Amino acid sequence: SSSNGTDAAAPSDAIASDNTSGVSPRVMAALHDANAIGAAPSYGADTVTARAERLMARELGDGTRVNFVFGGTGANCVALASLCDVPYAAVLCADSSHMFVHETGAPERVAGVKLLPVKANSGTGKLRVDDVAAHVVAHQGSFHSAQPKVLSITQATEMGTCYSRDEIAALTDYAHTNGLLVHVDGARIANAAVALRCSLKSLLTDSGVDVVSFGGTKNGLMYGEAVVWLGTNTNAAVAAAADRCVYVRKQSTQLPCKTRFVAAQYAALFERGEGDDGSAEIDVDAELATTTTSSSSSSSSSS
Predict the structure, then answer these.
(1) Measured between alpha carbons, how far is 113 from 107 in angstroms, rounded to an integer?
(2) In 3-state terms, the chain is what percent helix, strand and coil (to 5)?
(3) For residue 119, what are the CA distances in angstroms to 3, 128, 299?
(4) Residue 26 contacts by C-beta under 8 Å, 6 or more apart in sequence?
(5) pTM to 2 decimal places
(6) Contact yes or no for 181/175 (Cβ under 8 A)
(7) Tell me: the pLDDT tens digits for 29-76?
(8) What is the pairing mode between strands 225-229 and 211-214?
């Protein structure tokens, strides 16, 4: 706001954050179409939501389960609370992560989990297995400490860099071996997929990720995010967390009554020809960030 209390004119171009952009025309059209249906079952029991879930599962693989929510911080809280099934659970995350620095303590207050910050590489913002292992060794098994139950990473990172698929696989392998599940804060996950030139399935599901806060607002949506569970058909612990999520989402005030209007936007991002075997047609807004994200990700394998 300006000094006289009026709103300053918005710049014609803004690079401060991709959540300053408008809504993708394709998403706006999808919202219009969903509204034209008229009355429909609430809380996700509608055909629009079912279609969006089906399209997302087609890209991410069998066992994918989707819970649509209102916002990114809410998505992180719902995912973490669902993953942590004991009251003394802790989440290992980068000390530069959005959830640790910029969510006003929501994961600890709303989700009720302890965040244990791990020093990230100052140049890349990424975590390394050795850094994570040091915290697991320091806390695991000690009744004086909250117990690490989840490892959370951000893709793309807060520094604008990307974890390579090998880096993610190394972290998930270590986490699973030591009894931790893996969450990805994917506010800009589509940008990472574009920058790394890989499918969402290879970047997430095939790399061992258990759940992702799949960003929509920063990728052309008007509003809404998704908590997406991966591989629930092969991992009983993840399936149990996904089962809890149904209740956690409601308790955390993140269950949209008219879920179809969030789901319709995701369907617009994921829909493509039924005979096309290419990767998801993620909104073109992701392409606009390729130049900035890929320049950082060119050294994504470094740490």
Answers:
(1) 6
(2) 45, 15, 45
(3) 39, 9, 19
(4) 220, 268, 269, 283
(5) 0.87
(6) yes
(7) 999 999 999 999 999 999 999 999 999 999 999 999 999 999 999 999
(8) antiparallel
